[in-house]
Design brief:
434 Repressor (Amino-terminal Domain); 126 residues; two-stranded antiparallel sheet; extended; single chain
């Protein structure tokens, strides 16, 4: 009968086990869900909801999504005190930081202003 991974790792020298555990911890730290991040900062969904000015149910839904707007993700990260960066990686080129996120909040303001201007024009012509 075969051995489990734990059994195999126990047979390795102590230094090798320590190296494997350290690398595993690095890999785990590099990838996290939004829920993992929130918990790492000691925030409950309720506290996060207050920071985002939404209901707790909205935080729960955002954490379960696999597809969302970049502005939603950016707002979530910023509410925890972080900054979202988007990096495009290509096979034969160095990584490129995409700067469109710098304008996410600016676009929202301009879009709102444009809607107000349109409403004013319509009201004036009526």
């Amino acid at each position: 009968m075969g051995r489990t991974l734990d059994q195999k790792i126990k047979t390795l020298p102590k230094a090798r086990r320590a190296k494997i555990e350290a690398r595993a911890a690095e890999l785990i730290a590099e990838e996290a869900t939004l829920q993992d991040l929130r918990k790492a900062f000691g925030l409950t969904q309720t506290k996060m909801a207050k920071k985002l000015r939404v209901g707790q149910d909205t935080v729960s839904r955002v954490e379960k999504r696999t597809d969302m707007l970049l502005s939603t993700l950016s707002g979530y990260v910023e509410a925890m005190g972080g900054e979202l960066n988007l990096v495009a990686e290509f096979p034969d080129r160095p990584p490129v930081k995409v700067h469109m996120l710098d304008q996410v909040s600016g676009r929202k303001k301009r879009a709102g202003s444009a809607k107000k201007a349109t409403r004013r024009r319509k009201a004036a012509s009526a």
